[in-house]
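Issue: ligand-bound run for pantoate - logging full I/O for the record.

Environment: standard queue, default settings, no custom constraints.

Inputs:
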Amino acid sequence: MRVFASIDELRHTLDALKRQGRTVGLVPTMGYLHAGHIKLVARARAENDIVVVSIFVNPLQFGPAEDLSKYPRDLERDAAMLRQAGVNFLFAPGVEDMYPRPMKTVVDVPDLGRELEGEVRPGHFAGVATVVSKLFNIVQPQTAYFGEKDYQQVVIIRRMVEDLAMPVRVIAVPTVRDSDGLALSSRNVYLSPEERRAAVIVPQTLDEAERLVAEGLSDARELEAKLTAFLSCEPLAKPEVVAVRDAETLAPVASIEEPVVVALFVRVGSTRLLDNRVVAGNRTGRDNKIVRDSRIAGQPGKGVKK
Ligand SMILES: Nc1ncnc2c1ncn2[C@@H]1O[C@H](COP(=O)(O)OP(=O)(O)OP(=O)(O)O)[C@@H](O)[C@H]1O
Ligand SMILES: CC(C)(CO)[C@@H](O)C(=O)[O-]
Ligand code: BAL
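Outputs:
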């Protein structure tokens, strides 16, 4: 595995390989890797000749009071995991490599980016869309891999790719979980043992959503209220977003007829945990097919919603 910090060096190396007809898959990450990231890598390896993983803790997507400076980092351990996983190139730029001058350009999907997690983290998704655009420009992958755990992120990146006709296929990969159901996340290391035990309320709330919908509950507001009450049974959990939205567009829905996503953003202690599940009346299930199905940029399927 070769490690790059320089945009130009990575680009020149990839250009030569692309001229030979090799396909390139990109897995963007912020590092401190776990089995969820490795699943993205495995999918990328299965579908591409060359796999590039980026590790960059992107300052643009952190608010001033957020955890940018304490975000967990261990590049040596990450590199060993990626070597083991068969990655070809690790792109690990410093802030000075990625942003040699203060960024004056922003890529934003403002309506979608201000909703849900974006309401709690103003500016976050503009930071994500900007860095992902830049990574796409640097690597120019045919395919890029993202985790379904960050459901809203996938919806926003898909929309950005489609609106700007970026020639990248976006693949969403199912969430990898711990044995008790908690979604793996780099920030889980912030949890104290007591908070870690309490955090299981998050996937349990998604099970509860599935159960309630399977029983026939179809009013979206009522489901949100019941899930908020369910979360409140755990004193360490503070729900910040409990939302039932159209699974494809994230638009608010009144009743659960077409597939909806139950999106949770829950604070446990000072750690924010993110999780979701797609449910749909009698088609309820863990298979978040809506977000996983990919469309090629510029070729939206028939009947795609606005
Ligand atoms: N448990 C998981 N299963 C599958 N993919 C995941 C999982 N956790 C993260 N990913 C995906 O890995 C990519 C990189 O995510 P990132 O480096 O932010 O990790 P993270 O664990 O989500 O970190 P954080 O705790 O900061 O949210 C994203 O596309 C993300 O959705
Ligand atoms: C996509 C991403 C790497 C952009 O910084 C980040 O938002 C993440 O890790 O999900
Ligand atoms: N996994 C999303 C990156 C972030 O929370 O900033």
